[in-house]
Amino acid sequence: MKHIILSLSILMFGLQLSAQNEQADAIFKNITHTYTLHADGSIDYTQSKELKLLTHRSFNRMYGETFIIYNPDYQELKINESYTIMDNGIRVVTPSNAFNKVLPRYAAKSAAHNQLIEMVVTHTGLEVGASIFLDYTLHTKKGSLPYLMEEVLLPQGSPCEQVDVIVNVPKGVTLNHKTLQIRTAPEINTQGAITSYHWKFNGLDAMPDEGFQLASRSFFPRILFSTAKDMYSTTSWFMKNPNFSYQLNDAIKTTIDNYCKDAESELKKMRQLQKLVVNDINLSRVPLVDMAYNFRNPNDVWQSNTATEFEKALLLTAIYNHFDINARVVGLVPNRLYDSKIGLLQHMVSYLVQVNPKDEAQYYLRVDRLNKTNEKYMLAPYTIVELNRDAESLRAYTIKQEVAGIEVKGSISLDNDHKISGEADVKLTAALNPCFDYVKNMKKAVGILPTLKADSILDSSSNEYKTNISLLFDHAKGPKKQEDVFFWPVPETANGIGHWGFNRLHKDRTTALQLRSPVKESYEYQMDIPEGYYVLNNEVEIEEKSEVGDVKISIRKKKNSLHITRSIMIHKQLIPETEYQDFRTLMNLWNLSLYKEVLLKKNN
User: Fold this and answer.
1) Which of 465, 332, 469, 333 is nearest to 403 (CA)?
2) Distance separating alpha carbons of residues 416 and 413, to the nearest angstrom
3) How far is CA 598 from CA 297, 418, 485, 536, 603, in A?
4) CA 513, chain centre distance (Å)
5) Among the four 67, 207, 280, 447, which has the fewest Cβ within 10 Å?
6) What is the rounded radius of gyration, in angstroms, for the C-alpha atoms of the chain?
7) Are 142 and 42 in contact (CB under 8 A)?
């Protein structure tokens, strides 16, 4: 129904409000969100805020402007009040030229969404100690939405002293509601023809800006509410749109028939058609809520060459069905937010295509980029909602998390010309199995160990869960020389946990950390060294264990050989903040270059 984007740079604090106030750039003295469902079905949303500025950064970089996005096709915006009280008490009313309408950036390349408006409110009279006051109403016309359905994320980028959420509905209308991560019940009052629900919150911490957070920041306090009976009611309404269709015109059918006429298998055809939709149809990031959940049919999407994620998923599903490949669109809802008794379409944060080929396992495919692996191995944090207009009930389910695996065993030799020969066996499973890289050509697997590129493949097999590869090295590129020392990085795959962005982890963390999946990764190499060289590395036997997982590193030397084993196991996909230090210890040890590189020196 609405999107409000505050121009801010979110702070990194997990302290109590009193301590936050001392360090904060600004403080919200109060924010009030008021939702009113009228008897005719129209909806008013009013936001009122008072923001105290405490630093120059607060108004130069963070809160100098407020951005309000709306759709004039069915919404009207009214600014009720906008002014600043300066530190000396002078009231500065926001002038008319401080209100400017622009096109939202995410709608810039989509003609179908060029009617959207972003109202930029430039606040004036700003200084340290000043307070910004803004009050506006967004009116949604009757007939635009069948229900009042919203969520309110309570924390902001700065501490909030007081937050009020008020929901008004006609007397007799049931409001299904729920608070998450915070225990506060609403005050419920009925006066005349209106029933009012009022939640009050005091002393809310700022929202920390930490990477690898749960999907949709679903661990932060929020309120969910809807006048829909349940999730099935909202999805049924959504799918009643006549544009929810898998029909393709003859021109599209001819084009796609020619496009994949040489595909040798159903899987190759699937991959080729996904590539067509991903690469040739531009992706629009406009959320469906901005369009009152309206969308275009596959034929119009094809003609326009630009589509939202849902529209691309609908198009790809229609294309698959044309080739008798069973497919349907599914929506993803973060597990912590899903509640079948509360009908909220906003919680579908992404859309995929579920594909059920005749002779293959079930696949989940993206439409914003090409899959490397079956997406289902990354879906454990989500509830999957099937969008099937013929279903008589809602089908929603979760997928069991699989441990992603990498196992490499190699035996290699270094010759006097500093070239490497030998063999290695590589096994990749679940989320770390880039099966789609090998759909057309397994020869791509020669580069699975980037620092030790193979010359050929001795044997291989691949399916959607597991890939096995046997590599042959024949005078592959060897160690790099710096002065009189040779540096040889212990070969590892490019998709292991060491490449997930955990190389620099902050000392402290206040929120849970989410991995793409649990992981079990191991490398074992027997390395023969030519006469006249010796190893500078010390022998080590290291094992670090915790509730999160373990890391084992072993370096053993003999006269002309070196045996190296490295393994890491992270048992959990979700690392609570209480176990973050254990995770950080394991990752810092795993990424330590001292144990990831072999150092050789030639005898004088």
Assistant:
1) 465
2) 10
3) 58, 13, 10, 8, 16
4) 13
5) 280
6) 29
7) yes
Global confidence as pTM? 0.91
- Token pair, residue 73, equals 């096709």
Q: Cα dihedral sign for 373, 499, 216, 76?
A: negative
| pLDDT of res. 479 | 81
pLDDT score recorded for residue 22:
63
71 three-state secondary structure: coil
Identity of residue 44: D
| 563: β partners | 526, 556
The encoded tokens of residue 377 equal 């191995």
- Alpha-carbon distance of 278 to 286, in angstroms, equals 16
| Beta strand 160-170 pairing with 26-37 | parallel
- Can you give the pLDDT at residue 454? 87
Q: Are 290 and 308 in contact (CB under 8 A)?
A: no
> Could you tell me the maximum CA-CA distance found in the chain, to the nearest angstrom?
98
Q: Which residues pair with 358 in a beta bridge?
A: none
> How high is the pLDDT of residue 464?
93
SS3 165: strand
Q: Where are the alpha helices (DSSP H) in 30-168?
A: 56-57
Angle between helices 250-259 and 266-280 (to 10 degrees): 120
Rounded to the nearest 5 degrees, what angle is found at the Cα of 131, between the Cα atoms of 128 and 137?
Answer: 145
Beta bridge partners of 100: 120
Q: What gap in Å lies between CA 449 and CA 158, rounded to an integer?
A: 45
Distance CA 460, CA 469 (A): 4
Q: Which residues of the chain have pLDDT under 70?
A: 1-22
Q: Give phi and psi for 269, each to the nearest 5.
A: -65, -45
Residue with tokens 């999946």: 517
Strand partners for 356:
326
Cβ atoms within 10 Å, residue 455:
12
What's the confidence (pLDDT) of residue 483? 80
Match 């992981």 to its residue by tokens.
519
CA–CA dist 172, 203 (Å, integer): 33
* pLDDT score, position 12: 31
Q: What is the DSSP string of 318-373?
A: HHHHHTT-EEEEEEEEETTT--TTS--GGG--EEEEEEE-TTS--EEE-SSS--SS
pLDDT of residue 204: 96
Q: Is 254 helix (H, G, I), strand (E, B) or coil?
A: helix
pLDDT the model gives residue 485: 87
| Among candidate residues 150, 202, 186, the one with its CA nearest the CA of residue 16 | 202
Interatomic CA distance for residues 251 and 583, integer angstroms: 54
Please give the helix or strand (H or E) that residue 180 lies within, else none.
Answer: strand 176-180
- d(C-alpha 104, C-alpha 462), whole Å: 44
Task: State both tokens at 103.
Answer: 């096109």
> Encoding tokens for residue 544?
């670090």
Is residue 64 within 8 Å of residue 130, measured between CB atoms? no
Helix axes 309-322, 266-280, angle to 10 degrees: 150
